[in-house]
Backbone:
């Protein structure tokens, strides 16, 4: 026979692995080390360089006309690439949400592949495809398109925005797809049964519900493209005036004002962090509105 004590011991919940404070602290150590050695310490070092002369480096950056032209160029590139990526990513995510689970998983794997490539590899791939001797350029040459004039587009701000969208669109798809999968399509059917067109049902019912997530995705890709320099450096060199390439010029072999470079890097980080903060605020407000 079982005693009352044995029954109580059997019913006593067991503490699972990783739930004790010591185990949780041990699990947090790798993440803390990564943040400490790859973010906190470099940030302190850069900040010391930037404020070494009492903040005069920031004054030199703000007094430079090239900074404001670079800020305008970065903003134009960011808005163009992010807006295009959001539109294409939404269309792709909407299409994937209508597919079967097996096909959707296979397509997600293919779509996520660009995220594994560096910016230099992406730029090299676009040069081989759309450059002066690129595959697509040569095919269009048979149709009467001037290969030289067409290839110049790739090395312009428009071409850079197009190339950047290659690795921005998968990020938008991965963020929007879960929202579209959880969306109740019966709402669209009900709206259409009441006389709304397909476009009106999408605009008036679907878009408002995914708008917070769409804004979050836009801010995410905007922060990525605003601070990226690998693809831009490989495609246009330093001919395009954007802030990441200005920073590259300041820290390259020809640069000598390392305090200004540190100040510019802090400004870039602040801008990208602010963009990400806007996206997080929009996401939190969307979640609170959905709960209400």
Residues:
């Amino acid at each position: 026979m079982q005693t009352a004590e044995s029954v109580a011991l059997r019913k006593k919940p067991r503490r699972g692995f990783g739930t004790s404070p010591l185990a949780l602290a041990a699990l947090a150590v790798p993440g803390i080390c990564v943040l400490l050695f790859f973010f906190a310490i470099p940030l302190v070092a850069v900040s010391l360089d930037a404020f070494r002369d009492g903040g005069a480096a920031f004054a030199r950056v703000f007094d430079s006309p090239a900074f404001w032209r670079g800020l305008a160029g970065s903003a134009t590139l960011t808005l163009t690439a992010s807006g295009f990526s959001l539109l294409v990513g939404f269309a792709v995510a909407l299409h994937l949400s209508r597919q079967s689970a097996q096909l959707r998983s296979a397509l997600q794997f293919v779509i996520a592949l660009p995220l594994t490539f560096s910016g230099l590899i992406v730029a090299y791939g676009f040069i081989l495809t759309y450059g002066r001797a690129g595959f697509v350029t040569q095919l269009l040459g048979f149709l009467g398109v001037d290969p030289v004039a067409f290839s110049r587009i790739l090395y312009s701000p428009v071409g850079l925005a197009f190339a950047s969208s290659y690795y921005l669109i998968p990020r938008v798809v991965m963020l929007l797809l879960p929202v579209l999968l959880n969306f109740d399509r019966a709402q669209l059917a009900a709206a259409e049964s009441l006389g709304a067109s397909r476009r009106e049902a999408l605009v008036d019912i679907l878009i408002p519900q995914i708008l917070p997530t769409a804004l979050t995705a836009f801010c995410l890709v905007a922060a990525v493209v605003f601070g990226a320099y690998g693809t831009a450096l490989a495609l246009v060199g330093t001919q395009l005036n954007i802030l990441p390439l200005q920073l590259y010029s300041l820290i390259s072999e020809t640069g000598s004002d390392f305090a200004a470079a540190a100040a510019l890097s802090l400004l870039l980080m602040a801008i990208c962090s602010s963009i990400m903060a806007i996206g997080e605020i929009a996401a939190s407000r969307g979640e609170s509105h959905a709960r209400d």
Notes: The chain is about 80% helix and 0% strand. The chain has a mean pLDDT of 85. The CA atoms of residues 63 and 186 lie 57 Å apart.
